[in-house]
Design a protein that fits this description.
The protein is mainly β and about 70 residues long. It contains one helix and four strands. The chain is elongated.
């Protein structure tokens, strides 16, 4: 889920920060902000993102069809 708020110049320095806002078991929710550091740290975009922690071995075994 993203929102673009303002444009930035081609040579601009953009700083993006992701902050963990909540955790429920394996579910992680993040708030993401992008600021134009070349223009007084102007907020140019923001987003939310959800991820799930998975077990590597279990994930790969499912991916490659192994049991």
């Amino acid at each position: 889920n993203t929102t673009h708020l303002k444009p930035s110049a081609v040579d601009a320095t953009i700083v993006v920060t992701a902050t963990l806002t909540s955790q429920e078991g394996r579910k992680l929710d993040f708030k993401i902000e992008a600021v134009d550091a070349s223009n007084g740290n102007t907020l140019i975009g923001q987003a939310t993102h959800t991820r799930f922690v998975v077990g590597r071995e279990r994930f790969l075994s499912k991916l490659y069809g192994q049991k």
